[in-house]
Design brief:
The protein is of the alpha/beta class. The protein has helices spanning 18-22, 52-66, 87-101, 122-127, 178-190, 214-224; strands spanning 7-9, 29-34, 71-74, 108-110, 141-145, 148-152, 195-199, 227-232, 239-243, 246-250, 264-270, 275-281, 285-288. The chain has a single domain (7-288), classed as Metallo-dependent phosphatases (Purple Acid Phosphatase, chain A, domain 2, 4-Layer Sandwich).
């Protein structure tokens, strides 16, 4: 498979001490990432080729297995729905795409996206996917591997703190509630390892695609002195920002474009002194020291 050869090299020059952040990092850790499959057995809408995501996911998982990715993180919007929402059909789409993900030969983890709550409750979604070694009901959580601390956040909450439920939400109203903010602060404080964060909606700005209280979340990540990078989805064109020493990488959405030639996924390799993102097909590669 041809790796996208476009790379952007953005080297940290300070603001926060990299030696402190990198302290304890493993010799190497390789993570497969994919976002926004939006799988559904429905006709193409605009640039979104929903049916094609099944074949794209098969290609993604096969390549991640071949390349020896140690675990896989799916960054949200795993499935979609019909023009006229139908709970039974939506559950079938979720089961089908999750079955493809389950062919990955290692632990796998999910981030909740807004479309994951189309037609379904969080409880329904969580009962039909697997987060390896994590209590089934938890939608935000953390785990350690190879001297690194990995954090999964859930921004699928309305401004009043209620969870997204069966399509009863606005996609522009994404929030990290107070309880989760407190958990995040305590979780970072309890770990001595460098941290990598995964979240669906974006943290590196303001506007429709961004989490409403993104600045508050960034402050917690920065104050910890441990956060190396944040990997995001939701914004299908993808983007990159570096804010106060933390890298924010938004992976391009898998659903965009027809056929395997328009696939998008990546392998993130974390080394003791740098992070390398190897983007496949449309996904952008990067290297940060």
């Amino acid at each position: 498979m041809k790796i996208n050869r476009r790379r952007f090299c953005l080297y940290s020059t300070a603001l926060l001490s990299l030696p402190t952040r990198w302290a304890g990092a493993a010799a190497s850790c390789r993570i497969g990432i994919v976002t926004d499959p939006h799988y559904a057995d429905v006709d193409t809408r605009g640039t979104r080729h929903y049916r094609d995501s099944l074949e794209k996911m098969i290609e993604c998982v096969d390549e991640l297995n071949a390349q020896g990715a140690e675990f896989l993180v799916e960054i949200g919007d795993l499935k979609d729905q019909d023009d006229k929402p139908d709970e039974k059909a939506t559950l079938a789409y979720l089961t089908r795409i999750e079955t493809m993900l389950a062919k990955f030969q290692g632990p796998r983890y999910h981030v909740l996206g807004n479309h994951d709550m189309d037609s379904l409750s969080k409880e329904q979604f969580m009962s039909r996917i697997e987060n390896s070694g994590i209590e089934g009901a938890r939608t935000y959580y953390s785990f350690d591997r190879n001297g690194m601390h990995f954090i999964i956040l859930d921004a699928t909450f309305n401004g009043d703190g209620t969870p997204y439920d069966r399509g009863n939400f606005k996609w522009t109203d994404a929030n990290i509630p107070t309880e989760e903010l407190n958990w995040l602060r305590e979780d970072l404080q309890s770990s001595d390892s460098p941290a990598i964060v995964f979240v669906h909606q974006l943290l590196d700005g303001e506007g429709d695609v961004y989490i409403n209280n993104a600045a508050e979340v960034r402050e917690i990540l920065e104050e910890s002195g441990k956060t190396l990078a944040v990997f995001q989805g939701h914004h299908h064109p993808g983007q990159y920002n570096r804010i106060n020493g933390i890298h924010y990488y938004t992976l391009k959405g898998m659903v965009e474009g027809a056929g395997r030639e328009n696939n998008s996924f990546a392998i993130v390799e974390i080394n003791p002194d740098k992070i390398i993102v190897k983007g496949y097909k449309r996904a952008v590669s990067a290297e940060w020291a």
